[in-house]
Each structure stands twice: as structure tokens, then as C-alpha cells.
Amino acid sequence: MTNRSIPLLFWPTRTHAETGCARSLGYLPHIVGTTCPPRGRGSVMAPTDTANAEHVDIPSLRGREGQSLGYAVILGLLIVSYGLCAIQPSTDPSPWAFLAMLATVAMVFYVTRARHLVQRVSWVVLSVAGAAAVVATLFGVDGPVLAIPLSAASMVALLVAPWAIIAHQVNRRGLDLEALLAAVTAYILVGMFFAFVYNLMSQISADPIFGEGSPDSLGNQLFFSFTALTTTGYGNLVPEGSTGQGIAVAEAITGQFFLITAVARIMRGASAKRSTPV
Questions:
Q1: What span, in angstroms and rounded, lies between the C-alpha atoms of 148 and 139?
Q2: pTM for this entry
Q3: Domain match, 122 and 257 both
Q4: Which has more confidence, 182 or 15?
Q5: What's the number of domains the chain is made of?
Q6: Longest CA span, the chain
Q7: 20 and 69 share a domain?
Q8: Residue that wins the pLDDT comparison between 137 and 45
């Protein structure tokens, strides 16, 4: 008996689960006589790179445009929150500014595509906190009873939001509008977080955070926070005590570290954009 090699025929195949073969589509080697016969000979074409590009790049582009719009909405909510906090003549946070911050955090979770469980839990927690703030305002509750919970809740919300943005952007490549808006949004969130750290300190301490000679208000705390974050340091507001000064130093280091990573992210995106073939 002569040994004859079994010829291999290359058929465009579309196999089915009921034949016992794996589901596949494309040109696969097929041995004559096997239990998985070719079907639709000549009727199935292998997908081309152009087709793949049409199916992958267009939805990806649309998704990036939607996320850029989402970050723009977050930035707008942050501006509203900052304005409501800056006009406060005292150190007590505004419930309406708190509601704007809750909406900002909820939008951050939505845009960054957090897990569904995280989004549901955050919506429940934020809704309860917002409803409690509105009810307390309607019943005339003020002073430390309302100010301390609002300040602490705002601080936690402003801590979680920038981390969600950083986690969403850390593995992305390329420089576009979404990356720039995300960097600016996270930077402002960090500055507002430290502002509410100073605010919580002033709420639980009997002494003003900037001393007796300087007016203490939420607006001044925001102003000082961003001068420390950007290492501008005008010198008109200086926290008294080692705790406040230590937090100011930590904020300055955080701001510089954020700028370094943001610039590295921009340069990496620009280099990736130049190296991409047209």
C-alpha cells in the first residue's frame, strides 16, 4: 500500500456548533473526509482590514467625542460648584454647592464608565446625601450640625472623583480634546478637595485656620488652596499651626506631581500621534 499524503484544500468555511466544530469565519485548512464539511463554498469572503477599520475606528471615534462632551459637562458643573462656594461669606458650605458637587461626581462615574455596581451605589449614596442636605436646609438646620457633615461629604466626593478620572485616562494613548479636558477637570477637583480639607479643619477647630488677622471663609479657603496647588503663594493668606502648614506642603507637592504626570501624558500622546502612519 503506497503512502499518499492527504491533500489539503483551503475552503472558505462557516462552521456551526451542531457539527461539533468551533465557530469560525474565514479561510481555514480543511482535510478531505473529516466530519466537518465545508459549507457555502466560494460564498464567504475573509474580512479585510478595511472592513475591520470601518467597524472599529468609527465607533471608537464616536465614543471619544461623547466622552469629550461628558468631560465638558463635568467642567461646567465644577465651575458652578466653585462659584457657589466662592460667594460664601462664612466657612459654612452651601447646600446648593453641595448638590452641584454631587451631580459632578455622578457625572464623573458615568463618563469614566465605572462598574454598574459602583454607579448604582454612588447614585444611592449621593441621592440620600443630597436629599438630607435639602431637608436640613428647609427645616432651618444650620451651624456645625449641618456644616461638618456637608464639608466631610464634599471632601470625600472630591477625593473619589479625580481618582476615577485618572484611572480612566492612565492607559489611553494619543492627545485629543478628551485628554486635555480630563486633565483640567482632575486638576480642579484636586484643588477643591484640599479646599474642603481646610474647611473641615476650620469647622472642628475653635481658632480660624488663617489666624485672627485674616478673614476666614470658604471663598478664602478655595483661593488659598489653588495658590498652594499651583505654588503661586501670594502670601496674603497663611495657615497657622503645623497641621495646616503640613497640609499646604502636601498640596503643593501634589500639584507639582500632577503637573509632571500631565505633561508626560501630553508628550506621550503627541509622540504617539506623530509616529502613527497616515
A1: 17
A2: 0.71
A3: yes
A4: 182
A5: 2
A6: 108
A7: no
A8: 137
